[in-house]
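Appendix C. Worked example: Calcineurin-like phosphoesterase domain-containing protein
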Amino acid sequence: MLPAIALSAVALGFLFVARAAPATRQVPLDPLNPYPTKPRVTFRSDGTFKITVFSDLHYGENPWDAWGPQQDVNSTKLMNIVLADEKPDYVVLNGDLITGENTFRQNSTKLIDEIVAPLNSFRIPFSSTHGNHDNEPNITHLEEIRREQLVAPLSYTRTAPPGVGGEEGPGTYWVPVYEHEGDAAPVLVLWFFDSRGGFSPGENSTAVPDWVDDTVAGWIEQQTALMDAAWGAPGDVRAALAFVHIPPHAIQALQPTLNSTQDPGLNADLLGSGSTQATTDSANLGKDQAFWDSLNANVKNLHAVISGHDHGNEWCRREPTKNVIFCFDKHSGYGGYSDAGWGHGVRNVVFSSPLPSDGLESWIRLEGGETRARVLLDQNYN
Ligand SMILES: *[C@@H]1O[C@H](CO)[C@@H](O)[C@H](O)[C@H]1NC(C)=O
Ligand SMILES: *[C@@H]1O[C@H](CO)[C@@H](O)[C@H](O)[C@H]1NC(C)=O
Ligand SMILES: *[C@@H]1O[C@H](CO)[C@@H](O)[C@H](O)[C@H]1NC(C)=O
Ligand SMILES: *[C@@H]1O[C@H](CO)[C@@H](O)[C@H](O)[C@H]1NC(C)=O
Ligand SMILES: *[C@@H]1O[C@H](CO)[C@@H](O)[C@H](O)[C@H]1NC(C)=O
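Step 2, the predicted output written as structure tokens:
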């Protein structure tokens, strides 16, 4: 799959670039080759591709007590067990990496070193979205991204161009996945969106909007136009998959329509105020609509949209207004709210081929190896 690479050389190369030219780092010369110094992410030689999603890791709770750090020891153990068993081709950390309410300004990004350690040691390419708990007086999405880029040679996390993403929402980007290393165009684009939320940094902290900013809608349109011009229209050869920490507002309406046979998995969190984007404050209801419209209008062959945030839910369901499949992650971290019997684990997503017409198989895997809620996400789903 991945060529053997000298991790330390990649890391040093990055450090050199970051120090020599911090401004140009954000705007790669070729916008369609955003990772010139990293190995290309590719399908396996048998035509499959496996993504494992860790979500809501919530590192850093109560560092002044014994149980907080013990939770993180447990979460790291879970990551090591899952990575050794699942051997994914790519990992997504889908937001709320850190419980920022509990962290200290002087060392909050050290938690990123702990979180990425298993990914570094297994040498798995990965990237992150960020959640409402990753924006707090002592930590921001941008600080987490910068730290991850510094300490994780196989991090593909990027920031949006200046002016895109809104207040405290820099973590919007895409990652190309190729069928073969030398191909001219990718067969899959992974999209990552920053749904913001939480609180602004510093002493007079205020609430940050908890939805993907309007500016992202235009950026999606612009990026897909660039891709089509360079690579050709997606047609029946280029697919997409999207990740965003807080589920879009439209997901709230799906819960009453769930069919536990078709849409298996834990359904223990009743979606209410704050469970989906732009529902915390009634004055802002539905403010993620521009993003949701643009994503579904411009990103063709979108297999699914995947979110975390609501730890008690792990189902998938087709969203009828956009005819797109939505799936919840599985709560992975020992930090963050939980309840008896919910367990901790991951969502696996497996592409059986690079063809957009072939569905994805997806299921929940718990720490101990138990699996459940297996679904085939294809045209016939729901
Ligand atoms: C951060 O500093 C606090 C206060 O000194 C300490 O309790 C905590 O363990 C430190 N956390 C990390 C991740 O180093
Ligand atoms: C850590 O995991 C063990 C099970 O492996 C569990 O008994 C313990 O309660 C967990 N500790 C915390 C603080 O979550
Ligand atoms: C932020 O960090 C400062 C300095 O370490 C600490 O005094 C303060 O309590 C932290 N704030 C919060 C909200 O935890
Ligand atoms: C925070 O607000 C207080 C009270 O209004 C003010 O005195 C202080 O200067 C503010 N701090 C910052 C960093 O703006
Ligand atoms: C739930 O799905 C099953 C399997 O597709 C179907 O047989 C059943 O009629 C559905 N139930 C409802 C209430 O729609």
